[in-house]
Amino acid sequence: MLVILQIILALFVFIYSNFFIESLNRVFIFKMIAINLFLFNVRSMLLFILQGTNRIKEFAQITMIDKILYIVLIISFLFFDVREFKLLVIADLMGKFISMIYAMYCCKDIIFQKINLFYFNIREAVRNINVGIKLMFANIASMLIIGVVRFGIERTWDVATFGKVSLVLSISNLMMIFINAIGIIMFPILRRTDDRKLANIYLTVKDFLMIILLGLLIAYFPLKVVLSAWLPKYAESLVYMAILFPMFVYEGKTVLLINTYLKTLRKEKLMLKINLISLSISILLTFITTMVYRNLDLAILSIVFLLAIRSVIAELYLSKILSISVSKDVILELLITIIFILLGWLVDAWYTVLIYTVMYILYLLLKKKDIAKSINNVRILVKA
């Protein structure tokens, strides 16, 4: 059923590109989007099955095959001085295709069955669609929160400016690869956990996660020096990295912890509501910063602001469900993030790393009791 639906969607995009788009490059891009729709969505379905059945090893292998093959092809193109963007797109699709084939092999006991063994349960399908469609729109809205701002920047400023902003966004998003990998493991574990333990586990994981994420912000200072020397043409855009680098703090907490918990507690509707509110604010801020004031600094700053707002709203909702208090932590995290941005943005000196490190140590001292409690909780969980 999914395969048939994806083929229909891909054909629709193919037909649209042939009749309504004039630029040959854009036609190519739309056709590649159509192929990507099929490959990505079919593979995603198989990955969800593996994740839901706790076959994390196969899940990780499929994801790695995609990324490794793509990286190998890109490095090969660069080595042979190939600069054709079409080949880069095809390389990405090849990675997805090979990984999809392997995913089909891993799920062969489900896929390769006789037709007469298949049956269609309308009630179950409706129930699954009802849950899935909320998650789908929640994920789309989540992607558009940053996507709308990027679109506004691309439309208001030139391609060079957009490319520089995209570079900094890509650097920040690299951190999310590792965070997403942990989230993949957490969901099936939480699904099998007693509901009475969820609140305690949340506070424990949150304490350790925020210590790591806020600690990783220290890496910005040496990373900026290295990238400025390696990419001197992009030195100007790396100033924006001070604003965008904390992205992974709020995005990481939302993706790894908050969204995982909301899905575990079957709060898909709440996820959708929060993401739609954040998307509405994103559209409003993008219009103000890119159309009214035409201020690139404010447009970039709005990205972190939006992710922080979404994270705070979602966590406050979740804290009510779990009957826990997170207000102190939210304020502390906001303060240390604001201090980091101000240091990176306004002060161009080597001692900024020392100032932030001192602030980070103060944060750890303020959280000393919570950290000790979390360590004790981990010991209890390990013994259990």
Automatic annotation (TrEMBL):
A single cellular component GO annotation: plasma membrane
Major localization listed first in the record, in broad terms: membrane
Compartments, as annotated in UniProt: Cell membrane
Topology versus the membrane: Multi-pass membrane protein
UniProt entry keywords in alphabetical sequence: Cell membrane, Membrane, Transmembrane, Transmembrane helix
Record field: transmembrane: 27-50, 62-80, 128-153, 165-187, 208-231, 237-262, 274-293, 299-318, 325-343, 349-366
Protein name, per record: Membrane protein
Biological source species: Mesobacillus boroniphilus JCM 21738
Taxonomic lineage of the native organism: Bacteria, Bacillati, Bacillota, Bacilli, Bacillales
